[in-house]
User: What shape does this take?
Amino acid sequence: MTDIAGTTKALSAIFMKELKHYTRYPGNLAFLFAIPFLFTFMLSAMGTFVGGSNAAQYFFQRTGTQNFFVYQILGSAIWIMTWVVIEDLGSALRNEQIKGTLEQNFLAPINRFLLLVGVALAHIVISALIFIGVVFATVLVLQPGSLLSLFLAMLTLILGLTPMFGIAFIFSGFVIRFKEPYAFTQIVNMIFAVLAGTYYPVSVLPSWLQIVSRIIPQTYLIEDMRLIILFNKSLVDLYGHFILLGVMALVYPALGYYFFKRFENRAKVTGDLSKF
Assistant: This one.
């Protein structure tokens, strides 16, 4: 019981610390809520300008829906959520290193996995708030008939974000080794935006890129969200994707933590934890 209580206390402390980093800077948090709308408005305006009076019809031919704003806000919101997960979790240890608290955290009598999980839990909460503040608000205004589908979409979100934490664990290891996470995380996030069909269906990509996109959890998450909210699909209809996401939710975090430990063990030999 003591071990359980200690684990819970450690997770709670890490979780609250990460949340305070967000609440301390409300402007930054508000910016995260605004970005999906800004990108969606910009792309919608560009599409209308280029497509002219037939823009909605062209969009329907490629996506199966004329509700371009909801279609794009779903992709944009999920992209920002995964951006937050990968960039913030990937750079969290670097921030601790700069503040001079990383070594103390690593000397604490807790498992490294708890340190990463505590940070991940905070990002789950932030991602859920972004989803509610952006997607719920948009669907409520533009497609109120799909409100019940949002609860099913939330389950999809939880399952789909879990593999992304595994990818973020790898970048946490990169921090220990290379001391510069931002170049890695920003490049990867931009690649994900292109390959995962953030603002368009993956089917418009070349065949070989479509194959690459299928190893990215974000691809299934965006696609399933659109199918659930815009096309009223159920879990039964999407069982194949849910099985794949379930496998990724098990495999990716395990692989991510494995690589993190490899970098950490190397750092113990080379002294990388104290190098800047």
About this structure: The chain has a mean pLDDT of 81. The first helix runs from residue 2 to 23. The radius of gyration is 20 Å. Residues 2-274 form one domain.
